[in-house]
Design a protein that fits this description.
Layout lengths: L2 H25 L13 H4 L32 E5 L3 E6 L5 E10 L7 E5 L6 E7 L11 E2 L12 E9 L5 E9 L4 E9 L9 E9 L15 E6 L3 E4 L2 H5 L8 E2 L3 E6 L2 E6 L6 E7 L5 E9 L8 E12 L2 H7 L13 H18 L2 H15 L1 H28 L3 H15 L8 H19 L23 H16 L6 H18 L4 H36 L1
Antiparallel strand pairs: 1-2, 2-3, 3-4, 5-10, 6-7, 7-8, 8-9, 9-18, 10-17, 11-12, 11-14, 13-16, 14-15, 15-18, 16-17
Helix pairs in contact: 1-9, 5-6, 5-9, 6-12, 7-8, 7-12, 10-11, 10-12
Length: 553
């Protein structure tokens, strides 16, 4: 295989990978187009409480069907502030209806903080109780007086909301925010005011529409939707369309695991305590492009006059893998590298280790690219030696084509004889590159999925490694580097092939205009190192060939 075929193989492989990603995105069934009216979180959340299956209900007391309270059209809200977030809480259900993250900026407006939960996407964290006369996420709560900001020197901020139960009991919903954490403890405190024991259930759910977040590139596919993790089923991603048609397949009951809503860089996950029975559920709201992913947890039987509690952890924030691992087993899998996780995970570990040394994600990418290039140096050298030898043989191959152009069989025989005589393996330039492709694709996913790249500056005009180069300087440099690489390779004998090869840098360059700067930086550094290595090897081979010819003369 000559040089042009090698390059075409590389281009075809990478292009196929990108086309496959976009084909998946294009063919993913679309959610319903109808969008609920904006501006009223209460109305958007207008679904009844879920019902637990028989397998989750205690044998002694069976909870009756849930009774939904009348919907509140304009619930009162209040805001609380910690060192990392500002959360807006609604009196209806005590739901978190807006969540602003101070350390991250909006993709399209770097002057504003990123908002995860909001009315626009109908993105809320909701919870309620299942049982006769108990409040649901549609019930009205009253806030108990207390601070609204995390005080200096304090490690937690607790918000308490209360509601009356129809049986004369009391119910409190307690939200606990902690310093330097995106975890919110959501707890229910239930007092039985009836003369009979009760066995309620608590449910916790995340609601979101089926749209991808703003600022997503059409050139790259990232997952948006609900996920479930259990020891039995492992990490399961579910399509919104399957949820809408009630055909989503996932492990529904377990004593471990969590449920979440995932989007690029961020996740909201509900994590019940370990070894606690739980039932996961998914559903689409009627007449709205909104979906709910939740978990039902049984509450211990409560005797008359007695109290009981039920709680889960809500993680709502960036997909920082170290923090996710501390919250729950398997939660770091929301940073999804697909089938190349076994390669991508150590690459990210190395990238993170380099960042700790250099203190800049851009330079960490540069150093990691150099290291990877060094690891594959022997393979690359073998490939470039094969290219250089093929370059020397090009004039002789052209002569053979002119001589035997009308006899394809004889031409192939003479070409193979020439390869054997000169000890050139036509596949030598291809196989070493093919071996490296999985590593390159894994690194592509690492740079695409790491939230650490978001809003991370490199130098001068590059202020966000996760956004495209605002002045297209890196893509232009990449085009130039690809053209130089083409010049170092043998010119294809076919004029049409030569024109196609010269057009490839510009085709790729246009594609990379919308790629994150971190990905383009990797390709630029890799190309520059390849040029240096290829130039040196080609110079040495050509010098050796010239010396051999002089000696023969």
């Amino acid at each position: 295989m000559d040089t042009r075929r090698l390059i075409l193989v590389m281009i075809f492989t990478f292009s196929s990978f990108l086309l496959w990603e976009n084909w998946q995105k294009y063919n993913q069934p679309k959610p319903a187009a109808e969008v609920a009216a904006a501006g009223a979180p209460a109305a958007a959340a207008g679904s009844d409480a879920p019902r637990p299956s028989v397998s989750l209900q205690p044998g002694s007391v069976t909870p009756p069907s849930a009774t939904a309270a009348p919907a509140v059209t304009a619930a009162e809200t209040f805001t609380i502030t910690t060192d990392l977030v500002q959360a807006t809480i609604s009196a209806q259900g005590g739901d978190i209806v807006r969540l602003e993250l101070f350390k991250y900026k909006e993709q399209d407006d770097k002057e504003k903080n990123f908002v995860l939960f909001d009315v626009k996407h109908q993105y809320f964290a909701q919870s309620g109780l299942i049982g006769e006369g108990l409040p649901t996420h549609r019930s009205t709560f009253r806030r108990v007086a207390g601070p609204s900001e995390l005080a200096d020197g304090s490690d937690e901020l607790q918000i308490r909301l209360e509601a009356d139960a129809a049986n004369g009991g009391k119910v409190a919903k307690i939200l606990t925010f902690r310093r330097n954490s995106y975890v919110v403890d959501i707890a229910w405190e239930i007092t039985n005011g009836s003369a009979q024991p009760i066995a309620p259930h608590a449910y916790f759910q995340i609601q979101r529409d089926g749209e991808t977040p703003a600022g997503e590139s059409k050139m790259m596919m990232t997952y948006t939707g609900p996920t479930v993790y259990t020891e039995e089923g492992k990490y399961q991603k579910l399509a919104f369309s399957d949820v809408a048609s009630n055909s989503a397949k996932f492990v529904k009951t377990a004593d471990n695991g969590w449920v979440s809503m995932v989007q690029h860089y961020f996740v909201a996950a509900l994590v019940p305590p370990e070894k606690t029975p739980r039932e996961f559920y998914m559903r689409k709201l009627d007449n709205a492009n909104a979906y709910q992913a939740g978990v039902i947890v049984p509450v211990a039987e409560i005797a008359p006059g007695a109290s009981a509690t039920s709680a889960v952890k809500l993680f709502a924030g960036p997909q920082e893998q170290a923090a996710l691992k501390q919250v729950a087993t398997g939660l770091d899998l929301v940073v999804d590298y697909g089938w190349l996780t076994v390669v991508a995970a150590p690459i990210f570990w190395a990238l993170q280790a380099i960042y700790k040394l250099v203190g800049n994600w851009g330079w960490a990418i540069v150093v990691l690219t150099v290291i990877i290039k060094g690891i594959f140096f022997p393979l690359s050298a073998a490939s470039y030696r094969s290219m250089a030898k093929m370059r020397l043989l090009t004039p002789r191959l052209m002569q053979l084509k002119e001589r035997y152009g009308d006899d394809k069989q004889r031409l192939n025989q003479e070409m193979m004889k020439l390869y054997q005589t000169e000890k050139v393996n036509p596949l030598g330039g291809c196989l070493p590159i093919l071996i490296q492709i999985p590593v390159f694709i894994a690194l592509y996913w690492v740079l695409l999925g790491a939230v650490e790249m978001r809003d991370a500056p490199w130098i001068l005009w590059i202020k966000d490694m996760a956004s495209p180069d605002p002045y297209f300087i890196l893509p232009v440099i990449m085009i130039i580097s690809m053209i130089i690489q083409m010049r170092l390779n043998p010119t294809p004998p076919d004029p049409i092939q030569a024109k196609v090869m010269m057009a490839m840098p510009f085709i790729f360059g246009v594609m990379f205009l919308w790629f994150p700067a971190g990905l383009v930086l990797y390709w630029v550094v890799n190309n520059v190192l390849s040029i240096a290595q290829q130039w040196q090897i080609t110079r040495m081979i050509e010098a050796g060939g010239k010396a051999a010819n002089d000696a023969k003369a």
